[in-house]
Amino acid sequence: MKEYKFLENYVVKEYWKMELGQSATDTLTLTPEIVADLTEIQVLGEVKVNLIWEKAEKFLMLNLSVLGELNQECSKCLKVTLHKIENESEFEFSQSVEDGDDRIKITSDLAVNLIQPIIDTFVTAIDQFPVCKKSCLGLCPTCGVNLNDNPDHKKANTNHFISEEVDNKPKIV
Ligand SMILES: [Zn+2]
Ligand SMILES: [Zn+2]
């Protein structure tokens, strides 16, 4: 993994000085190369990372959202279609972080490392079983024909569909 100083050493000095309850926003743009380097996922175009910082009593709250696009193969019919990556998560940053604390450390230079929060928010947004459409019919289990393109295939080949089940039954010798 290459070093990305603007993510690894993101300065929060201004946000730390804010009044209690005050908030500020920032947007980061990640190129497909950076995203691939961090997550091994190939996206289409830039990924926008939106940051909303809010000052709390002894910590900073962050609402982090990611927005991007990628091509994914349908888990039923294998057709490649465009999918949106859209997700948001909340994080807390503090200067003193104790063991077992979920908060992330703010360094003495008032900077934080945003790499892990971005990776976590991004990766959990990706569908492990994407479909080209909710009603996707998938492929014929016997001959592999795409049933979305051949709606009459099932009707015309009823034996074709039953045969698989019959073949799987234990044979009586
Ligand atoms: Zn499909
Ligand atoms: Zn078939």
How many helices? The count is 6
Strand content: 25-35%
Task: Characterize the overall form.
Answer: elongated
Radius of gyration: 24 Å
Q: Quick check: average pLDDT?
A: 91
Q: How is the largest sheet built, in terms of strand order?
A: 2-3-4-5-6
> Which residues sit in consecutive blocks of at least 5 with pLDDT less than 50?
none
Q: Outline the biggest β-sheet.
A: 5 strands, mixed
What's the end-to-end separation, in Å?
60 Å
Structural class: alpha+beta
Number of strands: 7
Order of helices and strands: HEHEHEEEEEHHH
- What's the helical proportion of residues? 10-25%
Oligomer: single chain
How many structural domains can be distinguished in the coordinates? 2
Bound molecules: zinc ion
Short description:
With 173 residues, the protein is α+β, with helices and mostly antiparallel strands.
Task: Explain how this protein is built.
The structure is a single chain. This protein has 173 residues and is an alpha+beta fold. 23% of the residues lie in helices and 31% in strands. The protein folds into 2 domains: 119 residues, no CATH class; 37 residues, no CATH class. The chain starts with a helix and ends in a 5-residue tail after the last helix. The strands form 2 sheets. It has a 5-stranded mixed sheet. A two-stranded antiparallel ribbon has the order 1-7. The chain is built from 6 helices and 7 strands; from the N terminus they run H-E-H-E-H-E-E-E-E-E-H-H-H. The site of one zinc ion has 7 residues, from loops. One zinc ion binds next to loops.
